[in-house]
């Protein structure tokens, strides 16, 4: 019992020291995230979420482990799913930062659950002030299935593609930062008009309803990916 008491006292000293740790350095190198199983941070070494810094308690804020980086995080900061290569590409619970890194998607609300401007505005309102908006299909990784939604590049945020489930939704469900991506044309397949966004290992494949719509989207995405936010600027570059 004395040995147990001494060990618990040492753990308590670790808890106060952990508060000053830099939490932006994962146990795994970023290029290893999802590829190797992380070493989990022990529950008794932290008293607060290693992402949002909110203290844990037994009822309303419980401890969870990110399956990508191994950090101890609260339920709100780990309310994401990402496919992890070391686990046979099965979806696993991950923290917000690992979700962004592994999927390339941004998240739609901060850790306090507060609104973040345009992300909380309705699709109809955003579409009325957009560079381009229409229905598209975003294919999954194997190219056999996918999700149809309402896609918008807003005038006041022209470097980001916002994806709504439907044209009248009150908020987007995800977004893709376009800057730095390459737009790739693809041959027509089974009457489907395909094109891609490519950056490093991240690839998004889209299906447009018509060839004309496909070309419009490719032009708009290429402009945003190059950082061109003003049509006059595009004409000068041309």
Shape: elongated
Tally of separate helices: 5
The sequence of SSEs as H and E is HEEEEHHEEEEEEEHH
Structural class: alpha+beta
Helical residue percent? 10-25%
The total domain count is: 2
Mean pLDDT over all positions: 79
Roughly how many Å apart are the termini?
78 Å
Give me the CATH fold name of the largest domain: PH-domain like
Question: How is the biggest beta sheet arranged?
Answer: 7 strands, antiparallel
Please count the beta strands (DSSP E, at least 2 residues each). Answer: 11
The largest sheet has its strands arranged as: 8-7-6-5-11-10-9
Give the strand content.
25-35%
Quick description:
The chain is α+β, with helices and mostly antiparallel strands and 238 residues long.
Tags for this model:
PH-domain like, two-stranded antiparallel ribbon, Herpes Virus-1, alpha+beta, 11 strands, elongated, single chain, 2 domains, 238 residues
Write the layout of secondary structure elements.
Elements: H1 2-18, E1 64-65, E2 72-73, E3 80-84, E4 90-94, H2 96-103, H3 123-127, E5 130-139, E6 146-154, E7 160-164, E8 174-177, E9 182-185, E10 193-199, E11 202-208, H4 211-225, H5 231-237
Antiparallel strand pairs: 1-2, 3-4, 5-6, 5-11, 6-7, 7-8, 9-10, 10-11
Report on this model:
The chain has 238 residues and is α+β, with helices and mostly antiparallel strands. The protein folds into two domains: 24-103, Herpes Virus-1 (2-Layer Sandwich), CATH 3.30.40; 123-226, Roll (PH-domain like). It has five helices and eleven strands, in the order αββββααβββββββαα. It has helices at residues 2-18, 96-103, 123-127, 211-225, 231-237; strands at residues 64-65, 72-73, 80-84, 90-94, 130-139, 146-154, 160-164, 174-177, 182-185, 193-199, 202-208. The strands form three sheets. The protein has a seven-stranded antiparallel beta sheet. It has a two-stranded antiparallel sheet with strand order 1-2. A two-stranded antiparallel sheet has the order 3-4. β5 and β6 form a beta hairpin. The protein is elongated and about 75 Å long. The protein starts with a helix and ends with a helix. 26% of the residues are buried.
